[in-house]
Design goal:
The protein has 12 helices and 37 strands. α8 packs antiparallel against α9. The strands form 8 sheets. It has a 9-stranded mixed β-sheet, sandwiched between helices. Strands 2-3-4-5 form a 4-stranded antiparallel β-sheet, with no helix packed on it. It has 648 residues and is α+β, with helices and mostly antiparallel strands. β3 and β4 form a beta hairpin.
Amino acid sequence: MRKLLLGFTALTLSMTPALTPALAQDAAPVAPKPAGIEADGVPAVPMALVDATRPYMEFRTAAFLDWDPVTRAMLVSTRFGNVAQLHTVAGPGMARRQISFEAEPLGGSYVGNDGTLVVRKDKGGDEFWQLYTLKDGRLTLLTDGKSRNALNAISADGKLIGYSSTRRNGTDGDLYVADPRNPATTRMVAEVKGGGWALADFAPGNQTAVVVNYVSVQKSDLYTLDLASGKMTPIGNHKLAISHGGARYAPDGQLWVTSDVGSDFQRLGTLDIKTGKFTPRSPEPKWDVEGFDIAPDGSFIAYVVNEAGISKLKLLDPKTGAVREVTALPKGVIGGMKIAPWGTIGVTVSSAKVPTDAFSVDPATLAVTRWTESETGGLNPAVNVEPELVEVKSFDGEAVSGFLYRPDPAKFPGKRPLIVNIHGGPEGQSTPSFRGRANYLLNELGVAIFYPNVRGSTGYGKRFVSLDNGPFKREDSVKDIGAFLDRLQADPAIDAGRMAVQGGSYGGYMCYASAIRYGAQFKAADCIVAISNFVTFLENTQSYRRDLRRVEYGDERDPKQRAKLLEISPLTSIDKLAIPLLVVTGANDPRVPKSEADQAVAAVRAKGRTAWHLVGLNEGHGFGKKENQDYQFWTELQFWQKNLLGEK
């Protein structure tokens, strides 16, 4: 659940000054606008801009998803058309063979040893996913075709899948099990209240399961579920604020979890389902264990530690407690880990110089093999710059940090313009992963980019992630941006007169709020799928997630909290937003509805100020289709050229 809340990172670029004369020619050819884009007050995109940026548009990624139990091929997600689709890779460096051909992106996992493949798909980014089996390019529907469904778990023997669904009332995430080979076997095993429920794993034998109820980033409660009777039994004391990041059964029936019991960080260990006692087994004194998987024979557990944004893959021997670290993977961010039935570990790795690719690890030798090498538009990814860690003390002495990407000083001497790009969530974290289109800013235009991790970000412990909770602490995270600005403006290589702000989702709120509070220091703001009014956001976000967001932001039904939420909402102080604004939104966004963008744009324009508005008519919480991403990219280029990269 936490990973689903992880924050949104926008890709932004700017146009080369050499193209400015071409843009001034009224007769210059323009690029066709995608049918799914509505551009309100936005200039047409010149073909000269499209041509100049083309190589940076054509990068691909290959995310590892699973191992084919029949052929031992990798299942990866990559894009060759407009959206990412499923492909198999028979061996390291071999061709990607496409096996899904849908208009929307898919995710998927194999079930059992017979090659049954279960996938999920939504419509236009609405996040009302349906589950299907995929065979011979055809989808067979497993769910009701209307509700929101999330695949949670697959039994070790492959006979059952567990998923949560809102089909009963559109709000509560009840728990279901099914044999995906026979949709008629679908049955509800637990009726619940709330949208944070998931069936985390099946116990050996498929008689019971472990269930997690995600309440907030600080609290997630575990239960055992009897699949026959539906009886749920709490594990441990649910009055305590304990966060469990994952739960898996070993072949011997032992329950392994990540938990922050007795620590500021998530540790890997065992949990006694009768007493609720957690016994930490990972030895790291600091940093979160972000994910883990257990070898099918129980001989080792692979887990990932997030060390200040850098991932470390380690293998734990559950019998001896010995830990070995995999050191041959590229330095970056690890995701999508899964151990094959024969023991090989599959992972996704992304870094400044690796455009998100699939790797395998031999658990015996720790040897690393790269399976995919995604295209980067013909560009050499080795020239991409690695970020530097910037740490500052905020207004109250709290230490906050972020990643600063600097252009090559030999190619771009002197003071450089800067964009501050704020992640979403807020339970998210900016990490040094591949930057895609944003490399155009760095490598061709000499624009620096700073990705801050303000208070409330994950990865720095449960104390830090709670520092922005509720309406009365919310603006403390905005004040953190002020501390970063003091540090960056004093940097001799940064042009303090040419700085801008950008952010998506919660980072979009931060974008609005920073543009209002620090408008004298910013030249422009690009706010994407952004919250403009906390009260209207909470009233209009989808009902299945409303209570989860109230825990983080505050409860608009409480008069005192409602008053504070209105006070800190950007829309309340929109008359103070004097710098040019670009707003990007998805018409089908279930999280931050389009109305949040509409009211912000209307309010800014009512003051006679600049507000460009780009709408993805077939998009949700962030653009997912390449043609729309491209058009957003080019629109942002023109916005930065006009408002950031021109005259001081």
